[in-house]
């Protein structure tokens, strides 16, 4: 059913066929963030139920012939032509449906990512029982009856590799109205989920030992001295918002803590000499998360990338993204 | 199990509904306990549906299946035959409902339901039954559609529209297939309808048999003449020729009782112009066909017997259409073979002595056999004989003596039998002919409707030089029976259709009822002629009439052409029409605004809110910041404001959009 997602271990011929198929389908349904289903993109074939129905029709035809009953002929032919008319209706259920990639949530290796899509109809007509699934994701069945668009979230594990995770082609399938035919499309929505490096603890942060009190790996929260307030800026950690003031009706204020200039930590590619690139990235990832949790400002220095110290959700994303994409091409 | 494999409750509702509409047309031929199983299964399934009970476990299911089989075996004493099969199918259908949990069970159930509809056609192809069956197909298809609408948790009519539309679109294609699909003979012999009662005339006739038949208002057959309908006194529909009298009962000779040399018809020279007509018979479960004398049929598979009957080697189980030509003036069998003469003169020894004496006396007084015939008919006219549907019972022995000399009240079979006995006793070859006499001309379409109450018996005598001559002694007793029909003949007695007080035939005097009855009958005739009676011959004629010589290439062209004629418009409606629903002018203008910004390098992202988009665009194109803010603000106001937007405001909005350049 899913020749697109091949697994290894098959004969050479099969691999070749898979490759051919992938090539063919890529040219037929090229990757795109927005795909509208049309005759190039929709496949239709009798389902197993349809074949079973065909056998039933054959039995009915035999009964009609053997009993020489014209009305039995009539019923058999009516059902047979119903099958043929169903081809059009099944096809129409998918046709002119637009699938739009909305977003993919970044994830750590082995976690589930969430892909969000939007189905839109371009005609005032129902689309019923649309079954959506990526090769490894969970499945959803949605219908567009009264609403013009619907958002769908699908979840799939992202694998072990940092960087961009491509879930493969989305299977969009429906057998409405009679179930006798299966109508489907494999869409590449050009949707990639970012996979961060796997956080790998290291006992200590080399080169930081002097600044870190008693060598504890984790700076204890609140150990810094309170310094003052300032206005909330987008990206500030929620932890630092002055909630009491907010509750009193003041504007949103953020508590600032005294941060010594030399306390702002630089996470540096050169901190882990002798280790492999992936391992370095994993350690850096771990420490970035640790500092973020503690609310400490931290910066990142990778070959070719420098991110100034800060501590906010946006900053964390920036750092993790840089780590995830180190040595890879940035897609967006 | 995929989530979509569950059965929506709506589909379940439709399946249970189909269960009851399916059993309706079958109700008369299934044992009552099948109905009980039906109700029980439906009740159980509804309890499961409502979450009160659970599905039966496998031992229970197995028990039910075995009980079902045993029940059918007990009720029908056999599992072979159509009725047991139907009962089995219906029981299976009810039990399948009890394990209807997943979608694949539902497919089996619904396809089985289609098959049950088909079995109904093996019993009856009546117009009303067909309407019920069409309704059934719609309901089953609706259930099938509902099955694919996930999340439909309440019984509703929505899927019926889809099903109805599809069936309407399929119907013309079906008609093309119906008329073009080659009709071939049965591939193997199939179980016959074992329980179906034989109807109409029977092979045996003893006093009272025809009169019993005359109590029925059922239609026996319908005739369509190519030319004018002959006068009703000429409409003697010959069915059976009864040459043998045994223990007071007349019967036809069995095939094997006729010597091989006598089996072939001694084909007479047809005289004059033939009457051309076609007959559609209701099923009789018998083999003989009806026709005016001297009948020959051009339809395939019809045989002609030595006593000038037409018959079919196969039992007539369904409505049956055949073409006949008749030459009424033909001389039948001018030369009588010795064997035939002996058979047609045979009388049981010693029975009815008084009748035989009288006949011998008449024969002695007559100069010729023809005169003897006249004298006997005169006897029936002169003496106080009464034509009645309620004759007194006759004794076991010497029945005809009792009838002729004592009771003198009888129906046509009494007169025919008495007459033939007298003829034979007088030395004139004679036999009883059973069939129908007369018929009702339907003014709507000119067909002749022959009812069971038109059943009649008369006689044929063989006269030198004239061959077999029809003599109807009933005409001598009650001429109105022949001229006007049974109802008039029994007007005084008031015994017309005594068992069917509601038959529309009884209300023929009421104009409106009669009109409706005749219209419906005309419809039934067309139905039978065009649909039920459509066979290889008719198909050949039809195709030849339309296309002249018929080749395989033409066949394919017609099939594909006519299908394209239907499918292309359907595809057009489904796939091309109803294009993008019109965007409002406001939205069109806003999209224009987005396009303008896109050309400047700021494309709107999927699902991006207008305000976020504006912020982004302002940062990228600071020189237009003010205009962008203006357009966005106006759009928000117009799009989300209460009430319809004013044309004037839209005009200002359009100007604001145009300022983006």
Q: What quaternary form is this?
A: heterodimer
Instruction: Report, as a whole number of angstroms, the end-to-end distance of chain B.
Output: 56 Å
Distance between the ends of chain A? 32 Å
Strand content of chain B: 5-15%
Question: What is the domain total for the residues of chain B?
Answer: 4
Specify the biggest β-sheet of chain B. 6 strands, antiparallel
What can you tell me about this protein's structure?
- The complex is a heterodimer of chains A (332) and B (661).
- By secondary structure, chain A is α+β, with helices and mostly antiparallel strands.
- Chain A folds into three domains: 15-195, no CATH class; 196-224 and 259-332, no CATH class; 226-258, no CATH class.
- Chain A has helices at residues 12-28, 48-67, 70-94, 243-247, 277-294, 313-324; strands at 34-36, 43-46, 97-104, 112-121, 127-133, 139-144, 149-157, 163-165, 170-174, 181-187, 193-195, 226-231, 253-257, 265-268, 298-302, 305-310.
- A five-stranded antiparallel beta sheet of chain A has the order 2-10-9-5-6.
- In chain A, helix 2 runs antiparallel to helix 3 (70-94) and helix 5 runs antiparallel to helix 6.
- The radius of gyration of chain A is 29 Å and the shape is elongated.
- Chain B has 661 residues and is of the alpha+beta class.
- Chain B has four domains: 3-180; 204-347 and 429-511, no CATH class; 551-576; 585-658, no CATH class.
- Chain B is 49% helix and 11% strand.
- Chain B has a six-stranded antiparallel beta sheet, covered by helices on one side. In chain B, strands 3-13-16-17 form a four-stranded antiparallel beta sheet.
- In chain B, strand 8 (303-304) and strand 9 form a beta hairpin.
- In chain B, helix 11 (353-365) packs across helix 14 (412-425).
- The two termini of chain B are 56 Å apart.
- The mean pLDDT of chain B is 85.
- Classes of the chains: A alpha+beta (332), B alpha+beta (661).
- At the A-B interface, helix 2, helix 3, strand 3, strand 5 and strand 6 of A face helix 5, helix 6, helix 7 and helix 20 of B.
- Chain B: InterPro entries: Bact_TGase-like, Papain-like_cys_pep_sf, TgpA-like_C, TgpA_N, Transglutaminase-like.
- Chain B: Keywords: Membrane, Transmembrane, Transmembrane helix.
- Chain B: The chain crosses the membrane at residues 7-24, 30-48, 60-76, 82-99, 106-123, 129-147, 167-188, 555-576.
- Chain B: This is DUF3488 domain-containing protein.
- Chain B: Residues 404-475 form the Transglutaminase-like domain.
């Amino acid at each position: 059913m899913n020749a697109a997602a091949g697994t290894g271990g098959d004969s050479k011929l099969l691999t070749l066929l898979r490759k051919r198929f992938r090539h063919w389908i890529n040219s037929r349904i090229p990757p795109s963030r927005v795909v509208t289903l049309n005759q190039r993109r929709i496949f239709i074939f009798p389902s197993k139920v349809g074949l079973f129905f065909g056998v039933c029709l054959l039995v009915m035809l035999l009964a009609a012939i053997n009993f020489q009953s014209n009305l039995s002929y009539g019923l058999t032919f009516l059902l047979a032509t119903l099958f043929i008319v169903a081809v059009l209706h099944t096809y129409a259920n998918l046709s002119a449906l637009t699938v739009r990639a909305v977003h993919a949530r970044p994830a750590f290796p082995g976690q589930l990512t969430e892909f969000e899509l939007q189905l839109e109809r371009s005609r005032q007509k129902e689309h019923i029982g649309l079954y959506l699934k990526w090769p490894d994701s969970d499945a959803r069945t949605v219908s567009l009856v009264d609403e013009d668009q619907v958002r769908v979230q699908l979840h799939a594990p992202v694998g072990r590799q940092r960087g961009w995770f491509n879930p493969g082609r989305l299977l969009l399938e429906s057998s409405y109205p009679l179930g006798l035919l299966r109508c489907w499309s494999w869409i590449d929505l050009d949707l990639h989920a970012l996979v961060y490096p796997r956080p790998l603890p290291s006992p200590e942060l080399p080169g930081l030992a002097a600044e870190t009190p008693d060598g504890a790996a984790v700076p204890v929260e609140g150990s810094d001295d309170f310094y003052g307030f300032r206005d909330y800026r987008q990206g500030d950690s929620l932890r630092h918002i002055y909630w009491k003031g907010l509750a009193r009706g003041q504007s949103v204020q953020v508590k600032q803590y005294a941060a010594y200039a030399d306390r702002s930590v630089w996470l540096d590619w050169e901190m882990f000499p002798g280790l492999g690139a992936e391992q370095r990235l994993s350690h850096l990832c771990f420490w970035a998360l640790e500092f973020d949790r503690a609310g400490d400002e931290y910066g990142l220095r990778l070959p070719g990338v420098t991110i100034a110290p800060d501590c906010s959700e946006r900053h964390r994303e920036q750092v993790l993204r840089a780590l995830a994409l180190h040595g890879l091409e940035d897609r967006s | 199990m995929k989530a979509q494999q569950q059965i929506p409750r709506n589909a379940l509702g439709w399946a249970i509904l189909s269960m009851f509409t399916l059993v309706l047309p079958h109700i008369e031929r299934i044992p009552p306990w099948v109905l009980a199983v039906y109700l029980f299964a439906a009740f159980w399934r509804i309890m499961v549906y409502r979450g009160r009970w659970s599905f039966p476990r496998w031992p229970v299911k197995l028990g039910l299946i075995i009980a079902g089989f045993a029940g059918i075996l007990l009720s029908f004493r056999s599992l072979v035959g159509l009725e047991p099969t139907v009962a089995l199918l219906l029981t299976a259908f009810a039990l399948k409902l009890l394990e209807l949990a997943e979608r694949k069970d539902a497919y089996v159930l619904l396809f089985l339901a289609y098959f049950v509809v088909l079995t109904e056609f093996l019993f009856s192809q009546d117009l009303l039954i067909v309407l019920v069956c069409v309704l059934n197909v719609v309901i089953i298809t609706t259930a099938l559609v509902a099955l694919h609408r996930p999340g439909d948790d309440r019984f509703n009519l929505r899927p019926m529209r889809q099903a109805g539309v599809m069936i309407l679109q399929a119907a013309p294609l079906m008609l093309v297939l119906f008329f073009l699909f080659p009709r071939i003979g049965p591939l193997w012999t199939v179980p016959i309808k074992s329980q179906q009662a034989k109807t109409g005339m029977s092979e045996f006739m003893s006093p009272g048999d025809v009169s019993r038949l005359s109590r029925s208002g059922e239609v026996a057959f319908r005739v369509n003449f190519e030319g004018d309908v002959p006068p009703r006194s000429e409409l003697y529909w010959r069915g059976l020729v009864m040459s043998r009298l045994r223990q007071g009962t007349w019967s036809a000779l069995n095939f094997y009782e006729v010597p091989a040399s006598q089996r072939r018809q001694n084909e007479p020279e047809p005289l004059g112009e033939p009457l051309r007509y076609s007959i559609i018979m209701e099923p009789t479960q018998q083999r003989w066909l009806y026709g005016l004398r001297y009948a020959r049929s051009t339809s395939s598979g019809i045989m002609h017997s030595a006593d000038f009957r037409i018959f079919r080697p196969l039992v007539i189980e369904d409505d049956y259409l055949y073409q006949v030509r008749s030459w009424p003036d033909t001389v039948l069998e001018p030369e009588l073979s010795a064997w035939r003469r002996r058979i047609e003169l045979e009388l049981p020894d010693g029975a009815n002595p008084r009748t035989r004496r009288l006949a011998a006396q008449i024969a002695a007084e007559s100069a010729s056999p023809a005169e003897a015939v006249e004298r006997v008919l005169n006897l029936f006219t002169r003496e106080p004989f009464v034509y009645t549907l309620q004759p007194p019972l006759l004794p076991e022995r010497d029945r005809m003596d009792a009838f002729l000399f004592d009771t003198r009240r009888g129906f046509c079979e009494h007169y025919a039998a008495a007459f033939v006995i007298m003829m034979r006793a007088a030395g004139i070859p004679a036999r009883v002919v059973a069939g129908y006499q007369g018929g009702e001309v339907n003014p709507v379409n000119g067909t002749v409707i022959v009812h069971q109450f038109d059943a009649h018996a008369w006689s044929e005598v063989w006269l030198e030089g004239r061959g077999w001559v029809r003599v109807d002694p009933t005409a001598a007793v009650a001429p109105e029976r022949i001229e006007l029909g049974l109802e008039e003949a029994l007007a005084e007695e008031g015994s017309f259709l005594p068992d069917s007080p509601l038959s529309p035939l009884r209300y023929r005097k009421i104009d409106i009822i009669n009109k409706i009855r005749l219209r419906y009958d005309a419809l039934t005739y067309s139905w039978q002629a065009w649909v039920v009676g459509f066979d290889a011959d008719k198909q050949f004629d039809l195709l030849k009439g339309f296309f002249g010589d018929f080749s395989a290439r033409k066949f394919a062209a017609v099939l594909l052409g006519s299908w394209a004629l239907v499918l292309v418009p359907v595809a057009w409606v489904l796939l091309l029409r109803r294009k993008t629903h019109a965007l409002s002018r406001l939205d069109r203008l806003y999209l224009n605004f987005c396009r303008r910004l896109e050309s400047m390098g700021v494309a709107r992202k999927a699902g991006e809110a207008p305000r976020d988009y504006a912020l982004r665009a302002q940062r990228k194109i600071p020189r237009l910041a003010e205009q962008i803010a203006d357009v966005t603000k106006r759009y928000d106001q117009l799009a989300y404001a209460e009430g319809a937007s004013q044309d004037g405001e839209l005009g200002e909005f359009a100007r604001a959009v145009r300022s983006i350049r």
